[in-house]
Specification:
The complex is a heterodimer of chains A (372) and B (422). With 372 residues, chain A is an alpha/beta fold. Helices cover 47% and strands 13% of the residues of chain A. Classes of the chains: A alpha/beta (372), B alpha/beta (422).
Amino acid sequence: MDKTQKYIGWACTYTPLPLIEASGFTPYRLLPTTQAPDRSGHKLHDNLCPHIKKILDRALDNDLPPLAGIVFVNSCDAMHRLADAWNQVRPHDNTILIDLPIASPMLQGPGALSTGPIANDEKSVDFLSQEFSKLSQTLAEWSGETPTKAATQEGLSHYHEIYNLLDEIKNHHIKGTLNKGGAFMQDLYNQAATQSSTQTLESLKKCLASFQETPSLHKGIPLFLFGNVLPDPEAFSLFESCGAYIVADNLCTGFRQFAAYDKIPPGLNNDQDVFAFLARSLLMRTPCARTFDPQKPLYIADQLLAEARSYGVRGAIGHTVKFCDPYLARLPIIREVFKKAKMPLLLLEGDCTLRSMGQHRTRIEAFVEMLG
Amino acid sequence: MISQYFDSLISGIEAKIKEDPKAFHPRKKYTLEVARLGKRLYAREGPIASPMLQGPGALPTGPIALCGVTTPFDLLNAMGVTSCFVEFIGALLASSGTVAPFLEKAEHSGYASDSCGYHRAVLGASQEGLMPHPDFLIATSCPCSGGLATMENLAHHYKKDLFLLHIPQDLSKKNVDYLARQIMEMETFVTRHTGRPLDPDRLLKVIEKTNQARELMVEIYHLAQHIPSPNSGKELGNFAIVMALLLGTDAAIDVTRAYRDEFAARLHAGSSGVPQERLRLMWIQNRIQFKNSIIPDLEKNYQASVIVDELNSMTWDPIDPHDPYVGFAERAISIPFNGGVERRVQHLKKLAQDYKIDGAINPCHWGCRQGTGARGLIEEGLKEIGVPVLNLEVDCVDTRNYAEGQLKTRLGAFFEMLHSRH
């Protein structure tokens, strides 16, 4: 860890990272990778997802860098319970919980069940803007400085550039010309989520500067990976050792973390514009299963299928952590839609450890063999 | 099938009333109204050819909505919509002993057995064509992520429009106004689907009835705090959460008045809900919905009485008839399951103190990340005021893994400990 940085912990991809940077902090993702003993069960029930339990284990074991504060998002019951438990086990930490609307404004138009006007989407954006305004004020209190317009613009600009650079590297990976494997990509995502945007930009630029396009060496079966939390780079090596090539992912520990910063519109002249932009972008980017448009229920299945097809893969793997209600309740329809479309799909359930992935080795190998 | 079940239940209770009106227990009145609501919800069992609600071939029951827990049901009652939160159906299926095949159906369709039993039950029932057929759906973000996902699945299954109410976390003015505006839009959404605009005069009358029922509920809770309590373990089970469905109707006033009168009469007569009450208990979250002998057992063997449930308390002010949307919003935000666990713990502590509770039972409904997730935090919170909590491991809907013997052993040990403190 860089001791000159002041870190703010975050755990959910709906966290507006540029606002944290604008206040002089470094956003540090609390990844559920730890050797800390399993003690969270004393505070939370065993049926809560291992993502948040591992993070709480880190808090209980002090397996964290010094944090100036933690930004939680009320994205699902488990995340809310994490915020509750954190406040109890580390009562002296600065924390804030951002409330998150459910409705995504993304899916208006053809295909909607209803043709009538439902204004949920605009209100969602307004509501989340106000939550971000509250966050910005809180961060200013924690840092003792009000973010300047220049700092905000720089935060936005940095994350936009990170998006572009990651996208460029990702495209080389998709084409197979990067030849560094999925573990390399995941490592980049993890670094980008836990270090300052300046450091990330530096390392991404270095990566691209040293890049030499070479013919694809990978021989694995091209697959698309979706789901929630899978931050361990070794998991991607495991897929490859089973004969798979994860071309692209839609994971909340993958590229999706940065997907909201693809476009920074001109004319963000004041804080309110910035908050509204971030609210809209985060609600509009490829959603986590917990966010949906009521006019297109379970559209996530069609979205994932379209995304898989866009990469020209031969099949898909859905990986979710146990007890994740938002994904568990949508998997039956995802399976149905993929089956109808004759897109082979393998569903795996994990607990954020490589051990659980190792137990799936035989199934992954069989799936790959079937597609071979 | 389900409609016949309600017919039989209604005729049975009505026959008993006719036989001996004076022996009529308020719980029977409550059950009668629940059965009547069930009958209305299932009045058009089987596939619906047309959702049109007016003109020739109009459906006899009026529009039906499946909803989330914190929907303003009195507003829907004012608009002539028969509605319930979907967990109500899950509980009905469990209490009628018919839930297992629906749970299995859901699990065979890919819904994880780790998820909430209420939701698995209704998802399975929808696939078997045994849910009320909705004209539209209204989902609420409170109390849980699992409930929202279930509503999204049901909207997809029935190909019906879904309206979403995002319930914010606290009662700030900004949040209340935000939710009030959503509820106004909900009214427009409902009107668009029923073709019946809200009649302001009818709304006024409905709000008056809501407030009357509210006052009676406050009286009931106040009476139940008496030592010994006129309440007993089963009498107010599921009470407040189900009464929300009846708010704004005469039925809500009849039921609450019956309870108030019965409890007042018991106190006047010097009798208690459980004879020789020794231990006063609080039930956290929701009841075990299928038939079981836990409550009678603890009343008989330990003179222990569940005199208060977590949700049986008044957390909202009377609704202003001239500005009801703000009142609806405040009510939805105020329920103990909303917001952070600290607020919930404070609520439980207050109940424990008001009712002079000796101990609390948390069934820890399996699959509930919202309610059960924070059980360790709740246990520690109540421990601070000297109230021990017994955490059980029960799926309150799913009978298949229910092991009553083990539960009774744990309850026995818990009550021995409580007795030793007296």
